[in-house]
Write a structure and sequence with these properties.
alpha+beta; 43% helix; 20% strand; 3 helices; 3-stranded mixed sheet
């Protein structure tokens, strides 16, 4: 499901500093998994930038035909 066009769309978006996500191919849909640890340590403005980034990535992948699920692991 994760095509070259989706990969190029994802990599064309610059992530906020010290923030990362992972994309998993689940055959019929893609999962964007957030790194919760990096998100927790951000300031309010950095969190807004991270959410904007996630939204842009999700939209870019959907524009290329993907069904996208956004998730995170809870902190322990």
């Amino acid at each position: 499901m994760y095509t070259d066009k989706m990969r190029m769309a994802f990599h064309s978006i610059v992530p906020p500093k010290n923030f990362s996500i992972n994309i998993f191919d689940n055959d019929h849909f893609l999962t964007i998994k957030l790194d919760e640890r990096s998100f927790v340590n951000m300031t309010h403005d950095q969190k807004l930038e991270a959410v904007k980034y996630i939204s842009m990535v999700k939209k870019a992948l959907e524009m290329e035909g993907a069904i996208v699920l956004v998730t995170r692991e809870p902190l322990k």
